[in-house]
Amino acid sequence: MVLPQILIFTVLFSGCADFYGEENSKEFTDSSLDSSPVKHVPVNGVELGYREFGSGEPLLLIMGFGGKMDTWNKTFVWELAQDYRVIIFDNRGVGYSSDSGENYSLELFASDTAGLLDALEISPAIRQSNCSITDLDL
Q: CA-to-CA distance for 21 and 19, rounded, in angstroms?
């Protein structure tokens, strides 16, 4: 059996938020990321808020600690959504996600991310990080 794969794209401290300049890309069809409703899923004792755009192979964008999913550059998300099912989410305690009062750790955030993928029935993952999108066909 062939399982779907997901590409995970991580950004530390939203360093790639302006990866695509607004003036250098196709016109975005909506003025914000609000064109997709916020959905919630229970994970590890919290509710994680997320949005989805496009269709195709799943691509999970992980915002750096403290950054909200709405911080992603809309043109960047739109460009990716032309070929992928783009999923953005808020980490626990940020934006549309709740908080359990548990001490934060990288392990906890990684577990939350894995839980989100499980809840969305997406596995396994291919990791891409630090704005390295050379494997993406943009």
A: 6
Q: Write phi, then psi, for 80 (nearest 5 degrees).
A: -65, -35
pLDDT in tens, 31-74: 468 788 999 999 999 999 999 999 999 999 999 888 999 999 99
Strand partners, 6: 125
- Which pairing describes strands 46-53 and 84-89: parallel, antiparallel, or unpaired? antiparallel
Helix (H) or strand (E) holding 77: helix 74-81
Could you give the count of Cα atoms lying within 13 Å of 8 in the half-sphere of its Cβ? 15
Report CA dihedral (68, 32, 113, 63) to the nearest 10 degrees: -50
The domains located in the chain, with CATH, are: 6-16+38-129 (3.40.50.1820)
Which helix (H) or strand (E) segment is 117 a member of? helix 106-119
Amino acid at 76: F
